[in-house]
């Protein structure tokens, strides 16, 4: 238990000092808890001695005792308050710091990390797991450490009056610690199972909500909800099993404490009966015996919760230890926006995708990438942005190997417009500002005008302050696309990577999107995964990708004359668009 508490204290990092100062306040609080009882005992003895004629009671002594009792009760509240304000907010602060740390790490890992780690696990780590830490981290430190500080102080006070009672109490605490240890062993075994059930529940719920459109369209709610039902039922079964296993040790722990309380009462009564203990001291012992263990009684929950915290800390550590791809990277200011692939080979895990790919893209030119589905077009773009690291060869941007740069410094040179646009649950203005957090309202409006979205934004109920549904659910596909272009325009990066929409967009929307793209790409180095004939035809260079290799490279005029994949591709596109090249 103390090992986990130590781990928890280390986790609080820069706030550790406040936890230790809190322990001092907890110690003083315990002393001030014992003092009023001891003063009351002294007062009662003095009253009884006076009553029995042994010694005369001085009224000043009574007043002094009363004042001392008031001071010690006030002291008790003061130190309780000081401990709370010093320790209790540490959980919130350490959790906030951990959230920022994880966010920063997840931003810098390879995208492959997200395929290897399921979303349920990652989502519950940054949501439920950290909320759990937020609520229980300092609470548990307080329960365990401050609880034992209190019990030790009270046992010492007890031993001062009656060493035998102090010794019995110590045995009680040791016995309870033994049962807590057994309880902990069970919780240790169950904590990862409990956590997995929790992750499965989060993952199946996310999956169900994400796939709601498909569920509705195919009327398959029964099939879709099957996974959730199983996850919820497994979690229920595991929690009941944990509870059942926990009960016997919990009962033994509480029984040992209660039995010792009764033993202390019995010993003090017997000693009083034999004449070796005064009546007031016996009353004090009885009082102590019922309050001495209250701080240790709650340890059963702490032992169980600490095991879950231990498993959570291990999970957070695994994420923190994820391979950050730019840990040796430097902030480099690029001299130009040339892009170069030298013999690049790349595989997703074991699956080879690109083989010895080499090409050059001069600054300010437009390169169209075409090829069959699954040939590796998106992968090439992902490697320019270093979403993954190459297995062999070099990707250079501005003549610098991308591995020499930090992700932030590389990506500050690149704007990406994806087919699948993601908008955040936030205002339209903040969604556009994502391209440049320092942008003013006027700059945002300017970018929105260039991206042809100003007019429809003005029509929204709160204009630029309208909150967009999660993922952009309250906007049309074309509107979302133009907002993402406005973001890219605002970023004003020298390299633009575009994935042209394949889904059919109505002519009006397509026209507006093309105008927005023209505004975005003017004077930039452009790499476009092209589907429209007009884009392909006007490109300075076309890369034809097939099965992870560049099979043809040149301008439209050069490639159309060759009897290769490009010619066949153009024939198909012409038929699809109803075009004909003379
Ligand atoms: N994250 C991933 N993990 C494993 N394999 C992947 C991953 N992403 C893509 N692939 C595989 O790599 C290959 C190339 O994919 P890529 O997305 O680059 O093709 P593409 O040419 O852009 O296809 P499309 O035109 O259909 O978008 C495909 O076989 C695909 O299944």
TrEMBL record:
<dbReference type="InterPro" id="IPR017871">
    <property type="entry name" value="ABC_transporter-like_CS"/>
</dbReference>
<dbReference type="GO" id="GO:0140359">
    <property type="term" value="F:ABC-type transporter activity"/>
</dbReference>
<feature type="transmembrane region" description="Helical">
    <location>
        <begin position="20"/>
        <end position="40"/>
    </location>
</feature>
<dbReference type="GO" id="GO:0034040">
    <property type="term" value="F:ATPase-coupled lipid transmembrane transporter activity"/>
</dbReference>
<dbReference type="GO" id="GO:0016887">
    <property type="term" value="F:ATP hydrolysis activity"/>
</dbReference>
<dbReference type="InterPro" id="IPR027417">
    <property type="entry name" value="P-loop_NTPase"/>
</dbReference>
<feature type="transmembrane region" description="Helical">
    <location>
        <begin position="60"/>
        <end position="79"/>
    </location>
</feature>
<feature type="transmembrane region" description="Helical">
    <location>
        <begin position="251"/>
        <end position="273"/>
    </location>
</feature>
<dbReference type="InterPro" id="IPR036640">
    <property type="entry name" value="ABC1_TM_sf"/>
</dbReference>
<dbReference type="InterPro" id="IPR003593">
    <property type="entry name" value="AAA+_ATPase"/>
</dbReference>
<dbReference type="InterPro" id="IPR003439">
    <property type="entry name" value="ABC_transporter-like_ATP-bd"/>
</dbReference>
<feature type="transmembrane region" description="Helical">
    <location>
        <begin position="140"/>
        <end position="161"/>
    </location>
</feature>
<keyword id="KW-1133">Transmembrane helix</keyword>
<dbReference type="GO" id="GO:0005524">
    <property type="term" value="F:ATP binding"/>
</dbReference>
<keyword id="KW-0067">ATP-binding</keyword>
<feature type="transmembrane region" description="Helical">
    <location>
        <begin position="167"/>
        <end position="183"/>
    </location>
</feature>
<keyword id="KW-0812">Transmembrane</keyword>
<protein>
    <submittedName>
        <fullName>ABC transporter ATP-binding protein</fullName>
    </submittedName>
</protein>
<keyword id="KW-0547">Nucleotide-binding</keyword>
<feature type="domain" description="ABC transporter">
    <location>
        <begin position="339"/>
        <end position="572"/>
    </location>
</feature>
<keyword id="KW-1003">Cell membrane</keyword>
<dbReference type="InterPro" id="IPR039421">
    <property type="entry name" value="Type_1_exporter"/>
</dbReference>
<feature type="domain" description="ABC transmembrane type-1">
    <location>
        <begin position="21"/>
        <end position="307"/>
    </location>
</feature>
<dbReference type="InterPro" id="IPR011527">
    <property type="entry name" value="ABC1_TM_dom"/>
</dbReference>
<keyword id="KW-0472">Membrane</keyword>
<keyword id="KW-0813">Transport</keyword>
<dbReference type="Pfam" id="PF00005">
    <property type="entry name" value="ABC_tran"/>
</dbReference>
<dbReference type="GO" id="GO:0005886">
    <property type="term" value="C:plasma membrane"/>
</dbReference>
<dbReference type="Pfam" id="PF00664">
    <property type="entry name" value="ABC_membrane"/>
</dbReference>
């Amino acid at each position: 238990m103390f090992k986990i508490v130590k781990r928890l204290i280390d986790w609080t990092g820069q706030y550790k000092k406040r936890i230790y100062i809190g322990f001092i306040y907890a110690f003083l609080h315990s002393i001030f808890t014992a003092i009023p009882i001891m003063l009351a005992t002294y007062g009662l003895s003095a009253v009884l001695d006076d009553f029995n004629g042994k010694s005369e009671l001085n009224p000043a002594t009574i007043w002094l005792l009363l004042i001392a009792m008031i001071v010690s009760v006030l002291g008790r509240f003061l130190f309780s308050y000081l401990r709370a304000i010093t320790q209790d907010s540490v959980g919130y602060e350490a959790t906030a710091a951990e959230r920022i740390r994880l966010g920063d790490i997840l931003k810098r890992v390879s995208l492959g990390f997200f395929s290897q780690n399921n979303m349920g696990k990652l989502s519950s780590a940054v949501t439920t797991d950290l909320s759990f830490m937020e609520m229980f981290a300092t609470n548990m430190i307080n329960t365990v450490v401050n609880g034992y500080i209190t019990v030790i102080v009270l046992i010492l006070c007890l031993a001062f009056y009656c060493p035998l009672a102090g010794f019995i109490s110590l045995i009680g605490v040791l016995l309870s610690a033994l049962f807590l240890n057994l309880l902990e062993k069970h919780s240790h075994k169950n904590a990862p199972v409990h956590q997995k059930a929790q992750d499965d529940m989060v993952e199946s719920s996310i999956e169900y909500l994400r796939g709601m459109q498909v569920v509705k369209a195919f009327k398959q709610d029964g099939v879709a909800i099957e996974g959730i039902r199983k996850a919820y039922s497994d979690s229920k079964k595991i929690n009941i099993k944990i509870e059942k296993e926990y009960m016997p040790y919990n009962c033994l722990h509480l029984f040992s404490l209660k039995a010792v309380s009764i033993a202390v009462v019995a010993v003090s009564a017997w000693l009083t009966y034999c004449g070796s203990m005064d009546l007031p001291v016996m009353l004090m012992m009885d009082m102590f015996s019922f309050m001495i263990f209250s701080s240790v009684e709650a340890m059963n929950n702490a032992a169980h919760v600490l095991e879950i915290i231990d498993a959570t800390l291990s999970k957070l550590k695994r994420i923190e230890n994820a391979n950050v791809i730019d840990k040796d990277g430097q902030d480099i200011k690029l001299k130009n926006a040339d892009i170069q692939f030298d013999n690049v080979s790349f595989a997703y895990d074991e699956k080879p995708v690109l083989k010895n790919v080499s090409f050059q893209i001069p600054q300010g030119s437009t390169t169209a990438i075409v090829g069959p589905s699954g040939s590796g077009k998106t992968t090439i773009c992902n490697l320019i942005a270093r979403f993954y690291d190459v297995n062999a060869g070099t990707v250079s941007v501005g003549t610098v190997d991308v591995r020499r740069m930090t992700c932030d410094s590389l990506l500050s040179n690149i704007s990406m417009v994806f087919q699948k646009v993601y908008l955040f649950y936030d205002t339209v203005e903040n969604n556009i500002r994502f391209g440049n957090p320092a942008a003013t309202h006027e700059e945002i409006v300017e970018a929105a005008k260039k991206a042809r979205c100003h007019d429809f934004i003005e029509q929204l109920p709160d204009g630029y302050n309208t909150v967009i549904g999660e993922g952009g659910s309250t906007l049309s596909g074309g509107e979302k696309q133009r907002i993402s272009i406005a973001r890219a325009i605002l970023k004003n990066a020298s390299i633009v990577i575009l994935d042209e929409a394949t889904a059919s967009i109505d002519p009006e929307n397509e026209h507006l999107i093309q105008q927005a793209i023209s505004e975005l790409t003017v004077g930039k180095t452009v790499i476009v995964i092209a589907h429209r004939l007009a884009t392909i035809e006007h490109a300075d260079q076309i890369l034809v990708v097939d099965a992870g290799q560049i099979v043809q490279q040149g301008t439209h005029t050069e490639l159309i004359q060759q009897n290769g994949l490009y010619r066949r591709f153009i024939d198909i596109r012409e038929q699809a668009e109803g075009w004909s090249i003379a």
